[in-house]
Amino acid sequence: MSGEKRVAVLISGRGSNLEALIEAARAPDYPARIVLVLSNNPDAEGLDKAAAAGIETAVVDHRPFGKDRAAHERLIDARLRQSGVELVALAGYMRILTPFLVEAWAGRMVNIHPSLLPAFTGTDTHRRALDAGVKLHGCSVHMVTLGVDEGPIVGQAAVPVLEGDDAAALADRVLAAEHRLYPACLARLAAGSAGVQPAADAVLANPA
Ligand code: GRF
C-alpha cells in the first residue's frame, strides 16, 4: 500500500496554489496525493485546472443553504469522507468555517494566508501591509482552528516590500512565495502522522 496521504484541496476561485500543489505532487517521492478538489463555487477556475490534471472534482454550492452554514459543511464533510481524505488543504477557500468542520478536521486541516501571521489577519492584506509601512511581508501556512487565521503556524515565507510597490505588485511577489511554501508545508504535514499537531517551527521557502 502506498504511504501517500490522501489530500483534498478546497478552493473558491483561481486555484494557483492548487496548481502549485498539483505540480509538486507529481514528484514520485511527494508524500501526499490530491484525490479531490472541492469548490463551493461552481465557476471556480481551479476546477478546470484539477480536471485537466485528471483529479476528481466536486462542487458543493453554498447558496442553497442560505444561512445554514453547518448544513453546507455537513455535505462537504460527507464528500471528503467518501473520497477517503486524510488531510484537507484550504487554498483560496473563501468561506468562514463553522466549528462543525473545524472540529471534524482538527489537526488535519491547513490554510494558506497571504501575510506573515499574526500580522494582517483577514482580507486586503497587501494594501494593509503597504499602509502600515512594513518592509517585510509574506505568507503563512497554518493549522485551521476556530479563530480565523489564528491556528499554529506550520511555515512562513517572507518577501521584501520594495520602493514603488502597489498592492498588485506586492500580491504577485507574495503569490510566488505561496507557490513554494504551500507544497513544502503540505509535504511536511503529510510525512508526519495525521491527527497529530505538527511542530510549529518555521519552513522558510526563500522566494528569491
Ligand atoms: C491566495 O493569496 C491565498 O493566500 C489566499 O487566497 C488566494 C488564493 O489564490 N487564501 P489562488 O486561488 O490559490 O490562486
Q: By helix and strand content, what is the structural category?
A: alpha/beta
User: From N to C, what is the helix and strand string?
Assistant: EHEHEHEHEHEEH
Shape: globular
The major pleated sheet works out as: 7 strands, mixed
Q: Work out the helicity level.
A: 25-40%
Cα-based radius of gyration, to the nearest Å: 16 Å
CA-CA gap between termini: 38 Å
Please give the number of β-strands.
7
Mean pLDDT: 93
Contiguous helical run count:
6
What small molecules does this complex bind? Answer: 5-O-phosphono-beta-D-ribofuranosylamine
Strand order of the largest sheet: 3-2-1-4-5-6-7
User: What oligomeric state best describes the polypeptide chains here?
Assistant: single chain
Strand content: 15-25%
Q: Report the uncertain regions.
A: 193-208
Describe the structure.
This protein is an alpha/beta fold. The chain is 34% helix and 21% strand. Strands 3-2-1-4-5-6-7 form a 7-stranded mixed beta sheet, with helices on both faces. β4, α4 (99-104) and β5 form a beta-alpha-beta unit. The longest helix has 25 residues, at 167-191. 5-O-phosphono-beta-D-ribofuranosylamine binds at residues 11, 13-18, 91-92, 112-114, 139, 175, 178.
